[in-house]
Amino acid sequence: MTTKAEHIDTLARTLYGEAKPHDVQDATAIACVVMNRVALPNWPNDVEAVCIQPYQFSCWNTSDPNRERIFKANGAWFDKCVEIATQAVEKRLADPTNRSTHYHTPAVKPAWSRGKKPVYYTNGHVFFNDIDTPPPASAKEALNQIRPIGKTDTMIATKIGGAASIGIGAVSQAVETLEPALPLATILAKAAPWAIVAVLALVLLYIAWSRYQARKEGKI
Predict the structure, then answer these.
(1) For the stretch 106-130, what's the b/e string if a residue is b when 16 or more beta carbons lie within 10 angstroms of its beta carbon?
(2) Residue 218 near residue 55, CB atoms below 8 Å
(3) Does 72 share its domain with 167?
(4) d(CA 213, CA 19)
(5) I need a labelling partner for 161 at 20 to 30 A (CA). Which of 92, 131, 145, 192 fits?
(6) Cβ contacts of residue 209 below 8 Å, gap of 6+?
(7) pLDDT per position in the chain (220 positions), as tens?
(8) What is the pTM of this model?
(9) What is the number of alpha carbons within 13 Å of residue 70 lying toward its C-beta?
(10) What is the DSSP string of 188-217?
(11) What is the pLDDT of residue 220?
(12) Distance CA 195, CA 212 (A)
């Protein structure tokens, strides 16, 4: 059975990894999100389970660089996170988020927040109390909630690459009809297949880079 001290420690490390550094307002709001989830039937019913639930708080993702950082947390800011976590677990923390259960940074636009209005803002995050999206069951599902598959770098690059290949192929066919009259057309016709290969190679490199970035940011 998880002890009160362990719940506090896990929540404090979550705040250390998720909140904007040294931002008490942001850490307080995130602590309230955790406690609000604990109180609802569609989430785990204890603090530690909510914090480490897969694909929820990215600092606990195995691929997130913050994971190693939160295990080594120490110093004045971590002490403050422990203080906030203690107040939250002991139900002594006032909730400024109006019962929010979700948040994200202003830099992203998750699918689940589209059409929704934030009810609370900090310097690090915006908070929502009307999200009914069920918790994702897999890393792929979590990524799709953050960036719908049609909007991912992978899909965008694939579409661009396909369009470019089709375009180069069409130009190649047109050039072939001109070969007898234009010597330059012969050179272009021979170069077209290599141009398609080059475009596809760039697309594959971009896809690999985008997935690396996503893993680095803890999104997959």
Answers:
(1) eeeebebbeebebebebebbbbbbe
(2) no
(3) no
(4) 21
(5) 145
(6) none
(7) 899 999 999 999 999 999 999 999 999 999 999 999 999 988 999 999 999 999 899 999 988 888 999 999 999 999 999 999 999 999 999 999 999 999 999 998 888 998 999 999 999 999 999 997 777 777 667 666 554 434 445 445 555 655 655 655 555 565 555 555 555 556 655 666 666 667 667 766 766 665 555 444 444 3
(8) 0.66
(9) 25
(10) HHHHHHHHHHHHHHHHHHHHHHHHHHHHHT
(11) 39
(12) 26
Beta strands per DSSP E along the chain = 102-104, 120-121, 126-128
Dist CA 161 CA 83 (whole Å): 52
Number of Cβ atoms within 10 Å of the Cβ of 147: 19
Q: Which amino acid, one-letter code, is at 204? A: L
Residue 200: what residue type? L
- Last residue within a domain, chosen from 80, 106, 136: 136
In a domain, 90, yes or no: yes
Are the C-beta atoms of residues 78 and 16 closer than 8 Å to each other? Answer: yes
Q: Is residue 143 part of a domain?
A: no
| Pairwise CA distance, residues 5 & 8, whole Å | 5
Q: Which domain holds residue 81?
A: 4-136
Whether residue 16 is found in the same domain as residue 91 = yes
Q: Please state, in angstroms and as integers, the Cα–Cα distance from residue 178 to each residue in 115, 175, 182, 191, 196, following that order.
A: 53, 5, 6, 15, 20
- Please identify, among 90, 112, 136, the residue that sits at the C-terminal boundary of a domain: 136
Same domain, 116 and 175: no
Number of domains in the chain: 2
